[in-house]
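User: Can you help me understand a structure? I only have the sequence.
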Amino acid sequence: MLSAFANCFKIPELRQRILFTLALVVIIRIGAAIPCPGINTEILARFFHDIIETKADNTVVGMFNLFSGGALENCAVFTLGIIPYISASIMLQLMTAVVPSLGKLAREEGGRQKITQYTRYATIAICLVQGYFYAKQFENPKTSQLFAGIDSITSQYGPLVPTPGFTFEFTTIVSLLTGTLLLMWLGEQITDKGIGNGISMVITVNIVSRLPAGLLQGWQMLRSPAAGTGESIPIIVFPMMLLFLFAVIAGTIAITQAMRKVTIQYAKQVRGNKVFGGQSSFLPLKVNYSGVMPIIFAQSILLVPAFMIKILPISSSSWLSEMADSLNRGTLYYVLYVSMIFFFSYFWVSFMFNPIQIAEDVKRNGGFIPGVRPGAPTADFLEYTMTRLTLAGAIFLAILAILPSAAQHYLGVPVLTSQFFGGTSLLIMIGVMLDTMRQMETYLLQRHYDGFLKKGRIRGRSTGPTPSLGQGQAVDASNYVWLYVIVAVLAIAGAVLSWR
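Assistant: Let's start by predicting it. Here is the structure, written out as tokens:
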């Protein structure tokens, strides 16, 4: 595997794409540190520092700050991130499956380009609304649930916005809108001239940028005196947490790559002196077909009621306060969270997976599933198989989604550190990295180099023989253990040095 990474820089085109992607990553991180005009960033920095130190449970602001790569902490021009474009893409994708005219447009030549253009217009509209919302929140942070608890800091260091008004609101909205459009353009440039999916790469870069801070918080938690004992937690707990993190990552990769291969047999056709067909293929049905979408939908819906109850004037009522606390991270939250993940898993599959159309396409091409009649029986078989696979995928997503909250509230893991033990961030990072590795492996195989794995090839990669000319030497499987040990030692050493 190490030789495969070295071989990536021996191919001129792949080397150019990797360096281009890294250059744009640097621009993305610079934009997350350039603040919008008119805001006292020192107050925001102290506010987020107090949230980290006191482990305050502010899910909304913590999630926004994580996906923006810390841009919200700096009130940077990239504060909105690429999330408005993702929201617009999901909205248009669902409308394409529901609205017949959009579905017909998507199947026409050049229709995808028009839908992409509609997505960009929707992104601008979402950015204007969210930008105005953020501007109002910055002007009145004391009455904002997004920055609850900041009044104690502003009373000591002055207002968050020294000169509020129309000028500040206009410049903030324009800055945030421009930042999102620039990120969208950078993502498209990565897709065209770089490596990997650009839009997903932007999110992954922002999430990974918070990993060092998460490791440092976990180390500080372990070295701080335990409550009521005055003694520090044993240092052996830190590598155990890393091993648990590696186990969660390995399980996520396995489920993400898992699929059911439905055999498709094609009948032989004789045309003149040539024989066509007679070959066997397979239809890949992924276990986690819906990906990260059910978790995103469930989180978005559950955040709204708790947020609205807190800003209502009747929120002082006892039963409403208890309901808000329960929806924030109580028993009711976990029950609704898991239920919505199951619901949206089947909802997404029902919209995106069409067994009738697949059965018709297989029949039209002269194929059939062994033991299943073509036509309606094939569609019923595919629907039954996908239903069982979706159940397994939904169970996996539910477990992965509650791991960060469980680690935070039952094990005392800091908020930022717990985000890397599962949930949306881990699924996005793994999905993007696997897709990037597939693209890099394609270039390696085209130039007769070995891929990243000598055995157990990446799903979707051709399993045929590769030419032996110029092959790189792959690392033996026994050396992977030493690789993981080196990574763990470097992580622990970096955390110790940062803590000191």
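Now, to help you interpret it: The beta strands are 259-266, 269-271, 274-276, 280-286, 367-368. The first strand starts at residue 259 and ends at 266. Let me know which part you'd like to focus on.
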